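May I ask you for just one protein sequence along with its backbone structure tokens in two labelled lines?

_____
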Amino acid sequence: MIGKMSNSSIKGSKKMVVSINNYLSVTDIGKILDVSREVVNTWLRKKYMKYAWVGNLRKVRAEELIKYLESLGNSKTAMANFKRDIENYLREKQEAKK
């Protein structure tokens, strides 16, 4: 089970929604990056990103996804776009829960 998280933010980002909602499911990552769940599961099996089990679901911190994307050598522009997309997705996800 995942407990409370301390305040943190994605490096280089102005603001970030901070809470348990900073964890992304395999489906969330697939939607953000426009890849299949199978691709994301393969990345997790190969330990490209750290994750936590929540019940029977794998959850990845947004910061871990950013680290993985940076490790691929993406340009600064691409990274800025990824960070924006992740932040927007998390914001929309949180607003949908209200």
Q: What stands out?
A: The chain has a mean pLDDT of 84.
